[in-house]
Amino acid sequence: MDPLPIPRDFPLPLPASPVDLQLAIVLLFLAHILFVNLMLGGTLLCLYYELRGLRRPELDRLAHAIAGTVTVTKSLAVVLGVGPLLVMNALYALWFYTANSLTGRAWIMIVPLVILAFGFLYAHKYSWQALAERKGLHLALGAAGALLLLALPLVFLANINLMLFPDRWLAVRGFLSALLLPNVLPRYLHFLLASVAVTALALAGWLCRRSLRPESELAGLDRAEVRRELLAAAFGATVLQAVAGPLVLMTLPPHGLSWPLLGYLILAVALAAAAAVLLWRELHGRGPLSPRYWAVVLALGCTVGLMGFVRHLYREQAVSTHRALVAAHSESFRAAALGAAMRLEAGVPRQGGAEATTSPGERSFRAVCMACHAAEERRVGPPLTEIARLYAGNPEGLIAWVKAPGRKRPDYPQMPPIAMQEGQYRAVAEYILDEVFAAAAAPPAAAG
Description:
The protein is mainly α. The protein is built from 15 helices and no strands.
């Protein structure tokens, strides 16, 4: 198994409190993903109804109306995507940057691919009448934009998945290997079904509203058929989530799971099941949309909100252990840098390769403490032999003093508190109380 990479973190303050940033990333992500769903789902439904419109011209008008919504939702999806990216880079800079680097060219290509996809979708929408007699070319424009939009979430999902699992970083060799890690493709399926369900439900409310103008291009359509078509698409995608959801859960590495997370997840599933039942009844109703429609919207809205919160809980739990290791490594590096600066200021020569054979306690002592303390001579502070006699059999007392020192004698300067890892405190205390004291108490070796 590859060793776990534990890089040093950046010693920079956050622009806001962690709680505020965590709340922001959940809310901003939900706003962004809603319009991403509407953009992708609208593009797919538009192509679907345009294909069916080759035999039923009235469905071609429905597809044209849906295309008009895509140009709005894709702009909002891009604008609202800036916020989550900024907060992600603030809260998870090290993990997110690493995942971006490991996926390499695929991540760099996101912006040009977005531009290209939007170009195809604009051409598809605004050439509807001009290419009315050349439907093959017109459908090809829409299909090209849709395929690009379908590819982009794979890059994001591969990155977000990879940043949560540092144990996989050394095994990843570019985007394709990151894409084949567990959980990426099940999450992608879940995302696609959610996009269709959310978009079809939203379009049913928008295109079947009572206030639709008489001169609208949909005015000549059978409103009941449009309602039935869109609600059926929403119901089918929602039911299929019963397959995609368990796949996502089963492929999630367990170290990010917790009982509170599973509790919220069960509540979200219960709300989605209730929404499916109500949607089935609404699908078989007659006339305009009933209050059941808004109950479905509320239930699925709460489901999406809970899913966004669960996603954040999993992310926090998944990176917590590695985050603690990174913090300890960063603190160890800071302490070593401080020790090196103190040694330089005190004129203590740099140690050579012999450090590789010394104990961890002696290495930590040399890195942090040796500028002020020696084994048997007085420097800035008292010799180690004196400290060892004072704290003999009491390593906890020595550790407490190093963390929060006072001033015992007027002939010594005030000692500053020393910041190390907990393991380093213990190792240094054992080195002083065991190795140094034992060496000082040992009788001199006989000559000859």
